[in-house]
Amino acid sequence: MTRTAVRLAGTIALICASAAITPASSAGTASAEHCVSRLISTGPVDDQGIVDAELLDLGCYRTFSKALEVGSEGRTRLAAATSPHELTQRILSGSTQQGGSVLIGTEYTADSYAGSSHSYFASSTCSSGTTWDVADVGGAWNNDFESGKGFGGCDTNKKFAWQNFGGDVRTCTPNCATYGALQNDVTSLRWRA
Asked: Is the peptide bond before 44 cis (omega within 30 degrees of 0)?
């Protein structure tokens, strides 16, 4: 598995990536892949609700439902035909047992929540007062996202053009069907309540 160091406050950049996950190339085709990563805490939550963590890549799957099952440690069970664009917090909450990692956000390689996806899981929701950051999405995903959704109380989501939360920013509350000027220009992510 690939481990990428991530600073949830945004002060530590990507340290290493021993392998890359390659997103599928064309949006809306049968070749779309659905990848998943888990944020693993490496220290306590600071007084501002920010946690240091590593990004643990858990692989890519043919179906979105399988990716969410893996990311949630088997606690989320969606119908196999569930498409990424139709997933809502209500559907997710009704399909998830207590415990395990929780989905905080999903990024998509096409407008309107289509194409390949990359879902991010964490040990707690944003509604617990935690801010989750990814300082660099990694080479394979850099400048590839076009839309995204927030889950788990992560109602204010920011997409940044540069590493470490720099450059132009797009704020989603919690979803954006398009990143507008930042389409295919997203390098770092932040989810918060």
From this structure: no
**Domain count of the fold of the chain:** 1
| 3-class SS string, the chain | CCEEEEECCCCCCCCCCCCCCCCCCCCCCCCCCEEEEEEEECCCCCCCCECEEEEEEEEEECCHHHHHHHHCCCCECCCCCCCHHHCCHHHHHHCECCCCCEEEEEEEEEHHHEEEEEEEEECCCHHHCCEEEECCCCCCCCCCCCEEEECCCCCEEEEECCHHHCCCEEEECCCECCCHHHCCCCCEEEEEC
Q: For residue 138, what are the domain limits? A: 3-192
Average pLDDT over residues 72-93: 90
CATH of the domain at 157: 2.60.20.10
Q: What would the mean pLDDT of 141-165 be, rounded to a whole number?
A: 94
pTM: 0.82
* Contact present, 98 and 124 (Cβ < 8 Å): no
Percentage of residues in the chain with pLDDT exceeding 70?
83
